[in-house]
Specification:
Elements: H1 5-8, E1 52-53, E2 60-63, E3 67-73, E4 90-99, E5 102-109, E6 136-144, E7 149-159, E8 162-167, E9 173-177, E10 186-189, E11 192-195, E12 203-206, E13 227-232, E14 238-243, E15 252-256, H2 267-270, E16 277-283, E17 305-312, E18 338-343, E19 347-352, E20 368-376, E21 381-389, E22 411-416, E23 422-426, E24 433-437, E25 443-449, E26 452-456, E27 459-462, E28 465-470, E29 476-481, E30 486-491, H3 494-498
Antiparallel strand pairs: 1-2, 2-25, 3-30, 4-5, 5-6, 6-7, 8-9, 9-12, 10-11, 13-14, 14-15, 15-16, 16-17, 17-21, 18-19, 19-20, 20-21, 22-23, 23-24, 24-25, 26-27, 28-29, 29-30
Length: 499
């Protein structure tokens, strides 16, 4: 997520409703079934949530009948075995195991060295780069069936800017570094200085097991770039990965097995650095031409599938040039802020958070405040399924919207509910929401952050939400407030409104 629009703008919120397409939450053993993308006005399921009610504790506004539990809190809750305190900057999160009324959740911490007092501690068996001190990584959290915390420990440390990732069909978590910092680079923060000893910009696998049973080894076959999130195809031979980068805008990638072997636990040990093929997406127009940027598509194309082709990455290690600059403009389809990715049995959902600034999109493309796509694995087509049109208020023009829970912008992380609808975490400006996107209908606010983390131009600011993910039974929605780092378990009559 790096720099969000909240960090570069001073107020404003964009309105938006859109069509979303039904899918399903992957189970721990295999991804569940998903519906095909529908057409604008089509789809079904879900109903309006009640109005959000302010929280007397000033943390989370929720609809009537819903409640939350704080699972972890930066610098407050304790890591197991005396490892320290819960790290900060909570980000991508996935439920990777359940059983006996227990849940196991793996969570990213999007940190550079000493960005927070509470970085991920270097624990034996978890350290990738000894030079990345008090930096990013993942923690493994266990809870009961209602989301009440029973333990937390370090799953990987010594990594940088662990942004999002994805749950695997075999029950592990693939965590993604959103950086391409080089070995030998120095860092200075928190009154300290250090040197990175290893290159960064990789995907790592984190297991449900304890700290000493981890594998802090990069999966170099998946490429080195500003990773955001990924989805593992149920065929176990393809992985789809997003890149959150600018100058030029990032790309969407596919890794493919080329020897017929299927992925499984311990990817970093089973794949060589050059295994398989890494390719970048090309969205094809009716005349066969390549769409140069996703921002050329608008709500007019909602529900319309476009053919996708792929072009191989010349140097996936980015030895001398970043991967996205290895392609000339017009040979690939770029996009501002390729963010969340979530797999279903039939395809994956992909988010572009926004594009409205002068350097966000081509001058003749259309500004927007968020796009959600569905990529069909078998058909190799991509369909725009949710679209938030740009609102000039997002650039600080005019007063804040009067009805904050009706205006949305900046979708980021995405998950698919057990009932086939989408839940989006908002990373926009002014009010910050967790959103329910109903197939064929509008987008509803299902939570609002009330915990201000500062002011801008005299108005309060609110941190983004991150890492929405449901328990397999649909009873608990886990979601994070990034700053200060808080993990929340929300319970209530989900099926009544999402089913």
């Amino acid at each position: 997520m790096t720099v969000s629009r909240r960090q570069v703008l001073a107020g404003g919120t964009a309105a938006g409703v859109g069509l979303t397409v039904a899918g399903a939450l992957p189970s721990l053993a295999e991804p569940a079934a998903a519906h095909e993308p529908g057409r604008p006005g089509g789809g079904s399921g879900g109903r309006p949530f009640p109005p959000l009610k302010d929280d007397p504790n000033g943390i989370l506004a929720l609809p009537e009948g819903f409640s939350y539990t704080i699972v972890t809190r930066e610098g407050s809750t304790e890591l197991s075995g005396g490892q320290g305190k819960t790290p900060g900057y909570h980000d991508g999160t996935g439920v990777v195991a359940d059983g006996h009324n227990r849940l196991t959740v793996i969570q990213n911490h999007e940190l550079t060295p000493h960005l927070s007092v509470y970085g991920v501690p270097h624990v034996e068996g978890t350290v990738y780069d000894p030079g990345a001190v008090n930096s990013g990584g993942c923690t493994v959290i266990t809870t009961d069936g209602r989301g009440r915390r029973t333990g937390e420990w370090v799953g990987i440390s010594g990594t940088v800017r662990n942004c999002a990732g994805g749950v695997t069909p075999w029950g592990t978590w693939l965590t993604c570094e959103e950086t391409t910092i080089n070995a030998g680079a120095t860092w200075t923060a928190g009154g300290q200085t250090g040197t990175y000893q290893k290159n960064h910009g990789y995907v790592f696998e984190v297991f449900q097991s304890g700290s000493k049973q981890q594998l802090p080894k990069p999966i170099k076959a998946f490429g080195r770039y500003d990773h955001e999130a990924l989805a593992v195809d149920p065929d176990l031979r393809h992985v789809y990965l997003s890149e959150d980068a600018s100058g030029p805008n990032g790309l969407f990638y596919r890794w493919s097995s080329t020897d017929g072997k299927r992925l499984g636990p311990g990817i970093a040990d089973t794949l060589s650095d050059t295994a398989g093929k890494l390719e970048a997406m090309q969205i094809r127009l009716d005349d066969g031409g390549i769409l140069p940027d996703v921002a050329y598509l608008t709500s007019a194309q909602l529900g319309r599938p476009f053919k996708v082709t792929w072009i191989e990455v010349p140097d996936r290690e980015a030895t001398t040039k970043s991967i996205r600059t290895q392609f000339a403009d017009g040979t690939v389809t770029r996009g501002k802020k390729f963010e969340g990715v979530w797999s279903t049995r039939k395809g994956c959902y992909i988010v572009n958070s926004f594009a409205f600034g002068a350097n966000d999109l081509p001058a003749d493309a259309t500004r927007h405040d968020g796009m959600v796509w569905f990529y069909n694995y078998d058909d190799q087509t991509i369909t725009l399924v949710t679209y938030f049109p740009h609102n000039a208020a997002a650039e600080g023009e005019g007063p804040a919207p009067k009805y904050a829970d009706l205006t949305f912008d900046g979708p980021d992380n995405v998950t698919v509910t057990p009932w086939g609808t989408l839940v989006l975490a908002e990373d926009g400006v002014r009010a910050s929401h967790v959103l329910s996107s109903v197939p064929g209908g509008p987008t509803y606010a299902i939570a609002r952050n009330m915990l201000s983390n500062g002011t801008s131009n005299g108005a309060p600011t609110y941190s983004e939400f991150t890492g929405p993910t449901f328990s397999p039974d649909g009873k608990v929605l886990f979601v994070n407030i990034q700053v200060p780092g808080i993990t929340l378990a929300i319970t209530g009559p989900w099926e009544k409104y999402l089913g």
